[in-house]
Amino acid sequence: MKFSILRKTLLPAAFAAGIVLSAAGFASAQGVKQEILDRMDGNYKSLTSLTARVKMDSTQAVLGETDTKTGSVSFLPKSKKHAMYLRLDWDKPNEKIVVIDKKYQIYRPEINQVIQGSSDSAKSSEKTGNALRFVSMSRRELMDNYDIKYMGQEDISGGIPTWHLFMTPKGKASYKSAELWVDKDGMPRQARVTELNNDTNVILLTDIKKNPTIKADVFRLDTRGAKVIEG
């Protein structure tokens, strides 16, 4: 009888305590998430240009095979004065990609070929573009377009401490989910994009230089004499 009374008394109290602790943890996670988004917003507002080394690991879900590419990127986020400018120079294979607003060019010097068209259909640039897109998104854009969950603190390659966010698109998108690893200054350092077929692309930015002077001719490819293919 005493055990029954104790159980009836203590179990509701323990359950209530669990709810309180869970709510406190949730509130704490929400507070951290807002702090991260605030810092990302500050980074977005102060960013006028960016250069970095970039590494992309693309993994095919069915085969489990990973292809790794390294290169460099120059980036001008969209502003009131100009459209978005992006240039990628992959080391191997030698491939140069320029995206200006919604137009792209992919130049392959080794076969003297350039593919050009709308960036909406540019699969080669979309993988990295999806990751860099988050660098130039305001807090409001992030919150309007994604359900965002704080996953905790993690060190990425190079021992850089970051906050890990898991983001699910609220509307129709060309990918299933995106994850960001954001540093203390609000700069996304790494992103993982999971495609609709479960293929993943992990983009890592290193040697980041924020707001350097980038000349306009950086975004002009010399494709004279190359075979042009409309994409």
Strand content: 35-45%
Shape: globular
Number of strands: 12
Instruction: Quote the distance from N terminus to C terminus.
Output: 79 Å
Low-pLDDT residue spans: 1-27
State the helical fraction.
25-40%
User: Considering the protein shown, what is the CATH homologous superfamily?
Assistant: Lipoprotein localisation LolA/LolB/LppX
| Highest CATH level, the class | Mainly Beta
Briefly summarize what is shown.
The protein has 231 residues and is an alpha+beta fold.
What layout of secondary structure does this protein have?
Blueprint: H1 2-46, E1 50-59, E2 66-76, E3 85-90, E4 95-100, E5 103-108, E6 113-118, H2 123-133, H3 139-145, E7 146-156, E8 160-169, E9 175-182, E10 188-195, E11 200-210, E12 227-230
Parallel strand pairs: 6-12
Antiparallel strand pairs: 1-2, 1-11, 2-3, 3-4, 4-5, 5-6, 7-8, 8-9, 9-10, 10-11
Protein architecture, described:
Strands 7-8-9-10-11-1-2-3-4-5-6-12 form a twelve-stranded mixed β-sheet. Strand 9 and strand 10 form a beta hairpin. It has three helices and twelve strands; from the N terminus they run αββββββααββββββ. The model is unreliable at 1-27 (pLDDT under 50). The protein has one domain (39-230): Lipoprotein localisation LolA/LolB/LppX (outer membrane lipoprotein receptor (LolB), chain A, Clam), CATH 2.50.20. It has 231 residues and is of the alpha+beta class. The chain has helices spanning 2-46, 123-133, 139-145; strands at residues 50-59, 66-76, 85-90, 95-100, 103-108, 113-118, 146-156, 160-169, 175-182, 188-195, 200-210, 227-230. It is 27% helix and 42% strand.
